[in-house]
Amino acid sequence: MSPFIVLSLLFGLTFGQTASLCAPSEYTIHVEKRECAYCLAINTTICAGFCMTRDSNGKKLLLRSALSQNVCTYKEMLYQTALIPGCPRHTIPYYSYPVAVSCKCGKCNTDYSDCVHERLRTNYCTKPQKLCDV
Asked: PROSITE patterns, alphabetically (predicted)?
């Protein structure tokens, strides 16, 4: 085996595992309001992917703050607003949502992220659907 192949293999094993795969990813949000006639499907980007985390075996010996794990979260984001069609006049027909511009591995900030995955949440429409592309 040539030295180039051996070095390439060692480089890939060493740095391939430490590289994060956290990046903006396409996602569809379904938005409904009880008063409105339609469900709005919004195509946006969210942060998703893998972040390297080192979990200590001595958890009971460390402070709780030292046990936080890195998650794929927003580095830069902007908010866009969509109009939900079919709403009566007395209802506010707007919905604002985040659009990921860039992502990073870091601690989850509960000011703008849902840090807990809930299995009971559903992401589908129960009313006729309209599509909103960003």
From this structure: GLYCO_HORMONE_BETA_1, GLYCO_HORMONE_BETA_2
